[in-house]
Model the fold of this input.
Amino acid sequence: YINAASGDPGDNNRFRIIWWGDVIRETAATNPVMGLGFGADLASRFLADYDLLSDENFSARSPHSMLVTVFGRMGALGFLAWLAVSAGLARMVWRLLKRGEPDGMGLASVVCVIWISACVGVVLEGPMGAVAFWTVAGLANARSLQDEPGGDERQSKAGFETPVAKGAASDTQSAIR
Done:
């Protein structure tokens, strides 16, 4: 598990587990419903527990897990909101995968990979991952509503125009006659 080429990957796991535990315990003891807030330093207790108080090079402020970060910053209420967003994304991904179209499955795969990575990493905590993720999630959601019964009505109620292919209007009028 430890070698010259990879350093000590087990230490990386220990690093995360200690930090996650510290954030969860501090949030549960301080304000479990509303969390510690967005200005709180989620690293303060961890630095003491992991013996990094004298390390001037340590600059991470996030515990490398969206789940822990959401609970630490927003408490149980924020975590419930995060679960609701997760359920909505899971429903969208399921619709795309069930449909089986390559483009939809590709978008669903990207959403899943980034979402799962965010549970154990910092991918959504900066613009490099977050912008890409939310853009792909929006495209995936639009794709999941296409050709769905009631999908056109949902899109038009949301204020989006549904594009109509040339000739489709005349085909529809012919079908009505």
Q: What stands out?
A: The CA atoms of residues 75 and 158 lie 31 Å apart. Residues 66-99 form the longest helix (34 residues).
